[in-house]
Specification:
The protein is an alpha+beta fold and about 160 residues long. Helices cover about 40% and strands about 10% of the residues. The protein contains three helices and six strands; from the N terminus they run αββββαββα. The strands form three sheets. It has a two-stranded antiparallel ribbon with strand order 1-2. A hairpin with a 4-residue loop joins strand 1 and strand 2. Helix 1 packs antiparallel against helix 3. It is elongated, with a radius of gyration of 25 Å. The model has no long low-confidence stretch (mean pLDDT about 80).
Length: about 160
């Protein structure tokens, strides 16, 4: 049996790699805080405007305010998206009508309302939630990669999506 041993050195120049990584992060963070943030907010607003429009029936008054209560905060690579129940109005209506964003007893229910509408709940009339947050997230994931890839391509990187 014969064997060959080759000894040598390989030199790989990685200078500039740190700069490239910094540029990728900078473009990614900038895109996240502008285009992607705007996308996440608009997707959720559209779903909520469709699911909970302003309308009135003899038993229920929909204010259409859920879409206006979408909040987006974050810095760096973090985004926090939620419905701020305190931005919903509350009105105690005449005795023959249900209260707007309040319980039957007239208690403030604005903070709990987004959760119940998303997840479903019991109470006097049990109902399934619409799972608007999960639906928004699915749309967001489908479009997020394309926006980020486009931004990186615009910064001169060779990016493929898949």
């Amino acid at each position: 049996m014969s064997s060959v041993t080759i000894n040598g050195k390989v030199r790989i120049d990685i200078s500039g790699l740190e700069n490239m990584a910094g540029k990728i992060k900078s473009v990614s963070v900038s895109t996240l805080q502008t285009q992607i943030r705007s996308l996440a907010e608009s997707i959720l607003r559209e779903i909520l405007a469709s699911d909970y429009p302003a309308r009135s029936t003899p038993w229920y008054t929909g204010t259409g305010e859920m879409a206006d209560a979408v909040m987006v905060e974050g810095s760096g690579t973090n985004l926090h998206i939620w419905i701020d129940g305190s931005r919903l109005s509350m009105a105690i209506t005449p005795e023959d009508m249900f209260n707007i964003n309040a319980s039957i007893k007239g208690e403030d229910f604005r903070q709990g309302l987004p959760v119940v509408l998303n997840d479903g709940g019991g109470g006097i009339v049990s109902h399934d939630g619409t799972h608007y947050m999960e639906r928004a997230y699915a749309q967001y994931k489908a479009r997020f990669v394309h926006i980020l890839a486009s931004a990186l391509r615009g910064a001169g990187f060779d990016v493929s999506e898949g």
